Structures are given as C-alpha cells and as structure tokens.
Amino acid sequence: MLRTHQNAFDMESACIAKGGMLPHVFHIKRQTFSSSPHLYGKPLVASGYSATISVWTSLAFVTAAMVSSCNIILEKMSKTAFITGANGISGSAILEYLAQNTTAEDWNSIIVTSRSPFKTTVSDPRIKFIALDFTQDAKALAEQMKDICAPVTHAYFCSYVHKDDFAKLNAANEALFENFLDSLEQVAKSLQNVTLQTGGKYYNVHLQPVPSPAREEEPRRQGPIENFYFPQEDKLASAQKGKSWSWNVIRPEAIVGSTSKPNGMNEALTIAIYLLVCREFGTEAPMPTNQRYWEGTDDVSDSNLIADLTIYTSTNSKCANEAFNITNGDYFTWRYMWPRLADYFNAKASTEQKFTKPLPKEGDVQLENSFLEWSKDKREVWESLCDRQGIASAKQTFDFGTWAFQDWVFQRTWSATLSISKARRYGWKGYVDSYDSFVRTFDKFKQFGLIPK
Ligand SMILES: NC(=O)c1ccc[n+]([C@@H]2O[C@H](COP(=O)([O-])OP(=O)(O)OC[C@H]3O[C@@H](n4cnc5c(N)ncnc54)[C@H](OP(=O)(O)O)[C@@H]3O)[C@@H](O)[C@H]2O)c1
Question: Could you tell me the superkingdom of the organism this chain comes from (predicted)?
C-alpha cells in the first residue's frame, strides 16, 4: 500500500464515504481507535474477560504504533509525477507548478510526455521526457512506458486532440484517454492517483444555456451531440473500482495560459494577437461577439491556478474520487474587461461598443464580426510588426491564434459559469483576479518572445 495521506483516520473515512475498498491496515486502525477507552478508564466489561481485553489492548497498541509509523514513512515517501500533454497549456502549467513549488524530497521525479518533441522553458533536473502517441493501443504503449513509468505514483492526463468537427473530436479524445489509462495501469504498480482534466463542456455550456454557475453534483445533461468528457470520466471511475489508487477530475473554463507550441484553444494569445494588430492599424478593436455575451457574466481559469488545485486534490486523501470545477474565483463582464485588456496593449476599445445586429435571443448564436474571418488577411501586418521590433521569432505566433475556437466561445448568447464552492468546501483556498491573470499571461508571452511589445 503505497498511498500517501494526511492521516489514517482521514483516509479511512474517505474510503468509507466513497464506497471504495477499505485497505486492510485501515480496518486494523479503526479497531485501535474503538478500543482506546479501555486504556484510560476502568474496564467496561466483567473481570473474567479483562485478561483477554488486555491482550487485545496491547495488540491494538502495537498495531497502532506500527500503522502510525507506516503512515509517517508513507507520507515522507517521494512521489513521481507523470504529466501528459506537457507541451500543452494545462500540462505545461502542472510541470511548472511542481518545478517551482516542490522539492526532490517530496516529488523526486517528474516524467512528462507529449506526442511531439518536448519544448519547455522550465529547467529542473527531475524532469524526464518520453514521446508517446496515445492513439496507439495500450499494449504497444505499455511496452514503451514500462521502464520510465514504472515508479509513477501520480498521473495527470492533459492530452487533447483538437478538431473543430465535434464527432471527430469526441472519438479521438475518448480513445486517447482509454489507451493512456490502460497502459498506465499495466506499468505503474505503485499508482496512487490519476487525475483527468476535462472542462466546463461537461455541463454542455458550449451548446445551450444551462443553470449557471454549474455545480459538480448536477445530473448530466444529454445535449444534441455526444460529449467526450462523459466516456472519459466513466472510464476513469470504473477502472478505479476495487483498486488502491484514487481518481480526480478537474473541470476548468476557458484557460488563460501560455504554451510553447500552437495548441487547440488559447484565449489569451488569440486576444493578444488581435489587439496588437488592431493597434498597428490604429483602428478600433471591437470585441468579436454579440451584445448579449458582451453584457453577460463570464469566468475564466488561470492555468497556474488549475495546477494548484490539481496538485491539492490529487495529494489530499479527503478529495479522493471526486470531480472539481476550477475558475479564478471572480466573475466579470466583457464590456468592462475587454477595454482594460485593449488598454494593456494601447489598442482602442470602449465600454460603449456598438452592435448593428439586433439583440439575439438567449440560446441563439451570433457574431457581430468574426476572429476567423478577420485573421485571414492579417499575417502580413503581424509579420511587419515583428520585424520592426526585431523579434522575428514571434512571426510564427500568428499560427498559435485559435480563431475558430474563439469565435465559437464568443458567439454564445448565454452566460455560462462554474461554481467553485465544492473546492472551497474541501479546503482549497486558491484565487486569482482574472484581469491580473490575463496581464501576467500577456507579460509571459512578451518575456518568451512570443509577441511584440
Ligand atoms: N485550452 C482550454 O482553454 C481548455 C478549456 C477548458 C477545458 N480544456 C480541456 O483541458 C484538457 C487539456 O486540454 P489543453 O487545452 O490543455 O490541451 P492542449 O494545450 O491543446 O495540449 C494538448 C497536448 O496533448 C498532446 N497530444 C495531442 N495529441 C496527442 C496524441 N495523439 N498522443 C499524445 N499526446 C497528444 C499534445 O502534444 P504535442 O504538442 O506534442 O502534439 C499537447 O501536449 C482537454 O480535455 C480540454 O478539453 C481546455
């Protein structure tokens, strides 16, 4: 039993509450607690039984001492992380989090994987990279993983294939996760936790108006199209049944963060490129959306904050076998956020943005103007801006803009937010101001030469 936890009692209640398998040592520990009154007061039973009781009490004492020292050892045992999608916006943030906030005593090794070669700005001797393609079947993957991944204790699945076609998106991502989990279970015999990152789309926030903020305990909504998060989450929970490892699911909103390579969904970078090009033209930079979304309520998820919750839940036994939403902890209105973001880049935008199309009905989709259409003839301007500032490396960033994805987010006419009350109830205290989250991310883009100043 290689599980690390706060204390045995905590672990035991968590196991019972979740209907999970109660490991043998915790049954013993429980007896120990219930026997303890005998140690302090008079025997509670007739004297004929007292010798037997005393033997049991001594045994309980010894057992308690053994379990307790075992727990101390387990708590001190170093963990090994396995982060998939390490080139991506979520996986790279978990890597950065572990590199910046942990020591080799606590996490002795950080194994990262992506399909293509690893590209990172994080430097840490604990990092080991292996390229894996999770479209391969579990047997083939296990063969490649068996040496490097054998010591994995905590696995974080952040791989994702983006396709604008929903049917293809669902099939591809469901298979990716299955292959990952089946192969991992074959090779990682000391596994303690598997965390799967899904997202707000679990609640169908992308398809239709839903009760907002969405809460984890709500029943699933079947939408007009399949949702690949359902089979992914089901696979995780069913694979865990009867095993000693625990699972977690983390569900963010649109992620504000940075990647070293183009990815499928990157809100902050798309906005940054748009605002910089508008500044270059000297024109207004209206938000490509509709009036209802402009005036509605929204939230976003900072990639570093997601990493913080992910590590918290995966290493905290009371969070075992639970799903958690994650957002920054504030709500905002784009009407007031957008001009502030524009201002950061010295681009022109106003809280009084005019819409020529009629106010759409809630539930419809509408765009006053489109990122995708806009982006089609802007590369030249972007490249000349990069040349003028002497950062030729940033020219390729134009390809990082996720224009179709952003249209798809901003065309909605409903406010869809997530509640993070559950994470709070489980003791997590994370928070970041969403404007600060954007600004920090923009600053990082500049620092890494991804965008001009
Ligand atoms: N981005 C967002 O705004 C957002 C918002 C809410 C929820 N989510 C959810 O968060 C999860 C993670 O998404 P993300 O946005 O962090 O992903 P991402 O930035 O697009 O990164 C995806 C990662 O998956 C890897 N990958 C792609 N195909 C692979 C394959 N065949 N085998 C192995 N690895 C492969 C990529 O590797 P290479 O780079 O090497 O190809 C990359 O490292 C997804 O479920 C997504 O829906 C994302």
Answer: Eukaryota
Q: Which of 304, 269, 301 is nearest to 443 (CA)?
A: 269
Residue 236 CA from chain centroid, whole number: 15
- What's the topology of domain 256-300+330-416+436-447? Rossmann fold (3.40.50)
| Token pair of 222 as six digits | 């079947």
Angle subtended at Cα 242 by Cα 193 and Cα 319, rounded to the nearest 5 degrees: 40
Distance CA 298, CA 280 (A): 28
Ligand 1 and 195: CB distance under 6 A: no
Residue closest by Cα to atom 24 of ligand 1: 159
The CB of 161 under 6 Å from ligand 1? The reply is yes
To test the pocket of ligand 1, the residue of 82, 87, 90, 302 to mutate (highest count of ligand atoms within 8 Å of its CB) is: 90
Question: pLDDT of 156-207, one tens digit each?
Answer: 999 999 887 888 899 999 999 999 999 999 999 999 999 999 999 999 999 9
**Whether this model's pTM surpasses 0.90:** no
* Residue 311 three-state SS: helix
> Cα of 279 to ligand 1 centre, how many Å?
31
199 Cβ closer than 6 Å to some ligand 1 atom: yes
Contact call for residues 188 and 155 (beta carbons, < 8 A): yes
Same fold, 78-255+302-326 and 256-300+330-416+436-447: yes
